Predict the structure.
Amino acid sequence: MALWGGRFSETGREELTRFSESISFDKRLYKHDIMGSKAHVTMLAAQKIIPQATAEAIKAKLDAIQGMIDRGEMEFKAELEDIHMHIESTLIAALGDEGAWLHSARSRNDQVALDIRLYLRDELDSIIEGIRSFQKALVDLADANKTVILPGFTHLQHAQVVLFAHHLLAYVEMLDRDAERLADCRKRVNVMPLGSGALAGSTLPIDRELVCRQLDFSRVTRNSMDAVADRDFAIETASALAIFGMHVSRLSEDIILWSSQEFNFIELADAFCTGSSLMPQKKNPDVAELSRGKTARLYGSLTALLTLCKGLPLTYNRDLQEDKIPLFDAIDTAHAILMVYPPMIATMNVHADRMRAMAADPALMATDVAEKLVELGVPFRTAHHRVGSLVKYCREHNKELDEVTLEEMQITIPEATAEFLKLFDPEESVGKREITGGTGYKAVASQLEYWKKQLQ
């Protein structure tokens, strides 16, 4: 009979067992479940709720159970429902009534809330570390190509010239916000719910603060009903990972475009690409495409968790068992991306000459001409109109901007001097943008030094 089955005359219908089990996915929580149980039983003994010898026997057997699971020796059974019941039933089978003391003053409701928080702390730390490695790969690539110029785009149209390193560092900034969000989320994960019981706490004289200190939480939850019903921390994790996925997807789109024959700005290492089953010439950027696609899974996990919790009355409802599948999938998806993306970036081959050739388009310096007029005292909107008229003149006469004579330029820009004819050099254009955060050589070198220090 199930450990909860005392008041039931019938349990164990096979189809219901299959429907309600969670061991198939929550078994990954076993180390955290055991960690929480050992802290709990230490507290029970300290409060003289159970004998010290019983606590020591339980902890020793919990260590043995963890070793057994580590070695793959535990048989997981759907009828035992979840990882908590597997561990507790194994404990009771070994220790008898002595093992049955473990569940004093707790419920599976606060137990699972504890396990997920312990699990998420570890996973968030690992993902943040992975994001830092991702940033470092981008910084290293930027540093190795810090003078490479390419056209920057708005609306996927040529806009202005920028340094390739500046473009890469934009993603370093995005990833930094991702790491900050996850670190901030971890603060709300790091709150200890055990001792809340099913919803109302316990009549036994437990010491929740002792458990909190043992497990290195920042504080205990303040409301027992909220403690067992709360999944905000899981939703927040999924939200931060969805934003991370969005950033990865944007970078993937750039990489996919850059590696196309039309752009030919980069080439990815063969290890991160695949061919076509039909067309022998193909080399497809599959890691970037799959990462772009996996972002949909991260969005789906967030939507699933929000939808799961949106109509639940207080306190715990069995619906919350379903929180783990989307949460675990979001964690696994983020790890999968972080395993392959940094080495793909590190082995990318940059076609600097191709980028520079595309950056030579004089139209990319049209704004430089307008800003030169501003320096001469022409209001920007007037300057913008005059340069736009020059662009129109060039199109009508099938000329590039740097092909007009001074006299032709003065038709639309009467203030133009011979100096204006020298404004169409990409290196000069980049070199003038030395404001903080700009794409100038010194500005980008400063950004690179900052990030190298930050990521040491």
